[in-house]
Amino acid sequence: MSLLTLPTAFVPRTCQLEPVTNQRLAASPFAGSEQVTDLLNDYWRMTVSLPDSPQAWGAWREAFIASFRGQVNWVALHHFVRPQPVGTMRGTPTLSADHAQGAAALAITGGTAGGTLLAGDMLGVGGLLFMVQSDVTLDGSGAGSVPIVNRLRVAQSSGALVTWDRPTALFRLMSSSGVPYMPGMAGGPSFEFKEKI
Questions:
Q1: By the 8 A CB rule, do 16 and 190 touch?
Q2: Are 129 and 167 in contact (CB under 8 A)?
Q3: Which residues have CB under 8 Å from 89's CB, separation 6+?
Q4: Could you tell me whether strands 122-125 and 91-95 are parallel, antiparallel, or unpaired per DSSP bridges?
Q5: Residue 56, CB half-sphere, CA atoms under 13 Å: how many?
Q6: Do the bridges between strand 3-4 and strand 74-77 make them parallel or antiparallel, or are there none, so unpaired?
Q7: Is the pTM here over 0.70, yes or no?
Q8: 41 to each of 8, 78, 135, 147, how far by Cα in Å?
């Protein structure tokens, strides 16, 4: 099992990133009432497709797909459409407190004073990828509490670096369409990735 290097020519035509919540739903057989339990093991699913290309590019695409050896190997991926926050927060942010498993917000410090993070912006902490749930403006010292869509799968310590420039998580390849060839062209393959847990 090993980490693959994402080819520099891997530039998606489409990218879809969605959180998957690990939950259990129980329904009463009598009254029909329901109870949902959040099992706090969220992960990401990403679907990506590449554009059609010159036929010569088909070879590296085939080699990249085969390098996964099914689900044995993995690759670090970021949100290709939003590699950096749309908001204005930059700097060198870190967590300002310890965070328990299941936490629904990140307490950060060291960001841009008065900087913003907007709903949908992506952050990384400790190899985990988080999506900002709602708009946040940091205070004059660059600190604030950032609500996140997905919960912390693993506890994080105060001082952990918060990555805002191309934050990544590790993903396994679940399926691929392969590389279809046409005269003089290599068709754009599609990929379905699941976050490595």
A1: no
A2: yes
A3: 111, 112, 115, 116, 117, 121, 138, 142, 164
A4: unpaired
A5: 1
A6: parallel
A7: yes
A8: 31, 19, 24, 17
2: helix, strand or coil: coil
For residue 67, the tally of other CB atoms under 10 A from its CB is 15
Map tokens 């307490």 to a residue. 107
Alpha-carbon span 113 to 196, nearest angstrom: 34
Q: Which two tokens stand for residue 8?
A: 């520099």
Query: What are the DSSP calls for 16-67, one per residue?
Result: EEEEE--EEEEE-TTT--EEEEE-S--EEEEEEEPPPEEGGGHHHHHHHHHH
Residue with tokens 């699941």: 194
Q: Does domain 3-78+169-195 have CATH number 3.30.200?
A: yes
* Domain pair 3-78+169-195 / 91-163, same fold: no
One-letter amino acid for residue 6 of the chain: L
Where in the chain are the domains? Answer: 3-78+169-195, 91-163
Q: What is the pLDDT of residues 151-164, one digit of tens each?
A: 999 999 999 999 99
Task: Give residue for tokens 């900087």.
Answer: 115
Report yes or no: 129 and 46 within 8 Å, Cβ to Cβ.
Answer: no
Percent of the chain whose predicted confidence (pLDDT) is above 70: 100
CA pair distance 126, 159, nearest whole angstrom: 11
What tokens were used for 113?
Answer: 């004073």
Report d(CA 91, CA 124) in Å as an integer.
14
